């Protein structure tokens, strides 16, 4: 069997104890190693490269990737700010259009 991780010349067969110790030491006990993959996929999706997420993460099924599209309060706040900015741009565009039309009618 080929092992990806080694400590010196010895292969590491199981890193669960080391993982548990590290997560406890940094104040995140109970975190799973898989949480890193999930976070990576979510970051790819939020960065706007969702199409590449499957290729990068090695997922074979888009349904699995879709399960990572978890929405939190920050996502909702960001979405509402984007909608507000969009609406403000629309109002400003309309105001400018009307201003130009009014100038044309006065001339």
Walk me through this protein's architecture:
66% of the residues lie in helices and 4% in strands. With 107 residues, it is mostly helical. It folds into three domains: 1-31, no CATH class; 34-70; 71-107. Helix 2 (34-46) packs antiparallel against helix 3. The chain is elongated, with a radius of gyration of 25 Å.
Order of helices and strands: EEHHHHH
Q: What's the Cα radius of gyration?
A: 25 Å
The major beta sheet can be summarized as: 2 strands, antiparallel
Question: Tally the helices: what do you get?
Answer: 5
The total beta strand count reads: 2
Structural class: mainly alpha
Highlighted features:
107 residues, 3 domains, two-stranded antiparallel ribbon, 66% helix
Summarize the structure.
The chain has 107 residues and is mainly alpha-helical. Helix content is 66%, strand content 4%. It contains five helices and two strands; from the N terminus they run ββααααα.
Task: Give the SSE map.
Layout: E1 6-7, E2 10-11, H1 16-25, H2 34-46, H3 50-57, H4 62-67, H5 73-106
Antiparallel strand pairs: 1-2
């Amino acid at each position: 069997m080929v092992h990806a991780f080694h400590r010196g010349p010895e292969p590491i067969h199981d890193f669960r104890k080391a993982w548990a110790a590290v997560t406890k030491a940094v104040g995140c006990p109970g975190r799973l190693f898989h949480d890193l993959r999930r976070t990576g996929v979510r970051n790819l999706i939020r960065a706007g490269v969702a199409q590449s997420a499957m290729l990068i993460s090695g997922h074979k099924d888009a349904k699995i990737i879709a399960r990572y599209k978890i929405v939190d309060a920050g996502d909702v706040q960001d979405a509402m700010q984007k909608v507000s900015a969009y609406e403000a741009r629309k109002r400003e565009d309309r105001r400018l259009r009307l201003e130009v039309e009014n100038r044309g009618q006065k001339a």
